[in-house]
Amino acid sequence: MKKEKFVPGIKCECGYQNKEFNVRTYGTCTRCGKVLDSKAKFNYEMFTRLRLWRGKLK
To answer: How far is residue 48's CA from residue 56's CA, in Å, rounded to a whole number?
Structure first.
């Protein structure tokens, strides 16, 4: 049986403990959707809605 490691996170006003990875990626609370990091939210919106990855080769 595997034990999950405790991952320190960012607590929202609603009381939910968000994982740091989710906040850095999406910028919002996973539970209530409140914006916790406006820069990360902006980058996520630009990536998903404007599809800025088109035409880029990796």
So the answer is: 15
